[in-house]
Amino acid sequence: MEIRLDARPDPERSHGRGREASGILRVLVAPGARQEAMKVWQRERMPKGTKIACVKTKLGFNAEIAVPASYLDTAQGGPWQAARLNVAVNDFDAEGEGAQLWWKPDWRTDRSYAGSGTFVKQ
């Protein structure tokens, strides 16, 4: 599973293409049978205080990510107002063929549109 969080100020956030831009947090996690068995890519690069849980279930897996609000504030240069989120699941069939299934179009592609996946604090 991959989660991308872009907390930069507009217009960088809304029009960002996500091509390894600084300011975009990437969380890649693989579930384990237990919390201790999950794998997190580059955990040491996560913002201090980030919490990640991802475990297998009978029907797939459950994941939860908590990122400190201070990370969002720093990325926006003041109290955060909005953040952009996207989620992908890497899906492999029995033959090992894989596909990446995105909640919103992958920001790196031409199918992406401005502001997709944006949440505004109210």
Please give a structural write-up:
The protein has 122 residues and is mainly β. The protein has one domain. The protein is built from two helices and eight strands. The strands form two sheets. Strands 1, 2, 3, 6, 7 and 8 form a six-stranded antiparallel beta sheet that branches. The protein has a two-stranded antiparallel sheet with strand order 4-5.
List the helices and strands and how they pair.
Elements: E1 2-6, H1 12-15, E2 24-30, E3 39-40, E4 51-57, E5 60-66, H2 69-76, E6 82-92, E7 98-102, E8 118-120
Antiparallel strand pairs: 1-2, 1-6, 2-3, 4-5, 6-7, 6-8
Rg over CA atoms, rounded to whole Å, is: 15 Å
- Average pLDDT works out at 88
**Which structural class do you get from the secondary structure elements?**
mainly beta
Shape category: globular
Q: How many strands, which pairing sense, and closed or not: the largest β-sheet?
A: 6 strands, antiparallel
Keywords:
mainly beta, 122 residues, two-stranded antiparallel sheet, single chain, six-stranded antiparallel sheet
What is this entry, summarized?
By secondary structure, the protein is mainly beta. It contains two helices and eight strands.
